[in-house]
Amino acid sequence: MPPRAAVLGGNENKLLEVLSQNPEGCTDKLLQQKAKLEKSALVASINKLLKLGRLEIKSQGSILIYQLRDVKSNEATKGMGQEEKIVFKIIEEAGNKGIWVKEIRTRSNLQLTQLNKVLKSLEGKKSIRSVKPVNDSKKKIYMVYDLKPDSSLTGGAWYGENDFETEFVDILGRQTLTFLQRQRSHAEVQHADPASAQRHMMCDIKQVKHFISQLGISKVELEDAEVKQILESLVFDGLVSRIHTLGEGGKKQTFYGAIKHKPLTTGISRVPCGVCPIISQCIPGGLVSPQTCTYMKEWLNF
Amino acid sequence: MTTSIHQLVVSLVDDLFGVICAKAIATLLSNKRLNMKDIIEKTGFDRRTVNQCLCVLIKHRFVRFEGSGEKNQPVWYSVDIPHSLNLPFYPMFVNIVKQQHGDDAEIMLEELLHQGSTSREILLETCMTRMKVSVKDQGSVDADKLNSVFEVLISRSYIEKADDLLPESGEPPPKKCKTTGGIMWRVNTQAFFNFMRDTHIVEFVKNRFDEGASEVVSVILTLNTQICGDMSQCSSSVTYDQVLHGLKNKNPDLVNFAKSYLDILTDSDLGIVKLIDEYGGGSYLINFANFYQEFAKHHISSIVRERFGPKCHRIFAIVLARNMIEQKQVSELALMPYKDAKELLYTLYTENFLEIQELHRTPDFSPLRTFYLFKVPLEKLTLKLLDVCYKAIFNLMEIRKAKLDENSRLVDKSLRADAAVMVATQRGISPNDLEDMLTSSEKQQLGSCMRLVKRLDLGEINILDSITALTHFGTSQTLS
Fold this sequence. Notes:
By secondary structure, chain A is α+β, with helices and mostly antiparallel strands.
């Protein structure tokens, strides 16, 4: 025979209504005031709702507040033991960034063997799953089963099957640079005035994103942040310049344009001594000396 | 002062003045300052020799002296390192003057650099003697022309009075310093460095923007009315009208676009051209301090790129741009695999191109609760790379000496052959009638040796560019 569903009285329903209107939670006093209940009735209703798992108690400093509990999360923890509920709640709170085993252990105060058992059981029930972050493949991060992991764990569009797709990123970078250089040459030909030419050659992220999507190289649609990463990498390589302006409504806008000349090799880097890894050991007549230096011989005979 | 600088200065003096002066300066370099008695004792030379050495070295500003002004008090001698390190720049100075004012000015500056400091009369006399030797028709050397060249060099501040040559009291001046007319003249190296600075600014702007922008900057620099030797961090300000007027004379096609170029230059994040006020179209100036910083960063980035590769250069550029940044943030911005970014970051740290700043969150200094921030120690890195530059120049000089020593017989033979051709030409004999003193294989060997020497000279010029960039940045940091 299936168990009877819990019947909620008028007081409990009042409390639930007040709590649903205050999703951030209510203190004792506020509940009593809004639900207009006697203290004893209030206490009894709260206890009943706690037993049914319809509300939860949280502390804000020294004050206790009551918050309505999500029915879905109730369903998710249905059939779980107390320890499993605690661990699941900790993992749920971590959201799509996930949480490390050591941290779960610290927060739940469970022993390692016990915790491992709980995690195995939850994984078996498909309530949680483990994800290996790209930054540190030795770590195991746990998160709720249905959640999509954050890009900081998966690496975003640049990672495929946990490997960084260097070639893909390089091609995108080269194509973006070619696009910006083309914009520059067009602008210089069509506009004699340099300020006007600069306005027309500088592109924003949307224009570059549109160009990349037209190329058809990327299997997935790139986010604005990912296109920005490509452009910023070109800025750091000294190939592209960046200008910030104020757009509509005073919003900051960033534009990127190709620099006319590639950065040249300068000064001492043209001489072997400037780039020698063992220059500090070089003395005339020593084991490493200018007269016997192989780098110098190659450079002089080039 | 580092070992590299010590070695370089001794080598330069040895090249120019010989072993005795080299030993004297090596002794002075090993001690902060010495008096005459100490120098005689430590070098083992007699008083007359030491006197002569010091006279020569003081004339060429390798050594400076200070007297207390009281009777029977000794005069202290010490090495003037900044001026000593100017010696490799002398060929560049001569070239600058030759390009601007012709061959006569070139000869005059060469003579003045040879003599260190001298009076006007002696300088003009030496120049005339030298020019008479090279000119076929004796007596066609114009003394008035030489005088006017001298005046021009003074007006350009390339030559200055040597007021500090004689001590107020103490030892009498060495006899070789003739003070005819009481005024001694010497080369003003600061004027040449200012000229080179201006050339570098124009070149930098040309590479970063375009030729039009570099012309505008060139006009602003030409209008700079600052006194040479003034260590100000900015040029004098020029108005928009003055820039227009300057451009009309230099490149009239750019007059219509002057405002646009000025706007582009002032809006740029380089901060080299600054708009200081809006009256009358605007007043602009060149911020030398910002230029020195950008120029030094440009040179250092080039070294990183050539030594460690383009990916490492990107990591370095990220840390340089963000100043204090965590390892995790670097790897996110670098757009490369996390492990590669980490490896390259720590390679730069091991080679002292980066430093770590610890920021403790808790008073127990626990590593788990500490932020480790990477930064580029620009001033320390500049000093380190300057040291490498001086060592590189010393190495190139050593290799040049070794190559010339190896082929000394051939070089001497070639010089004798050239002298014979010159004498024959003066006597009216055609050089083709003379027997060839060098065989074809000797000529080939000599050609190969000279090609190597030329390459070493070119290498030295490249290093001097880096030294200029890094020294200027170091000086501007000291002044700010």
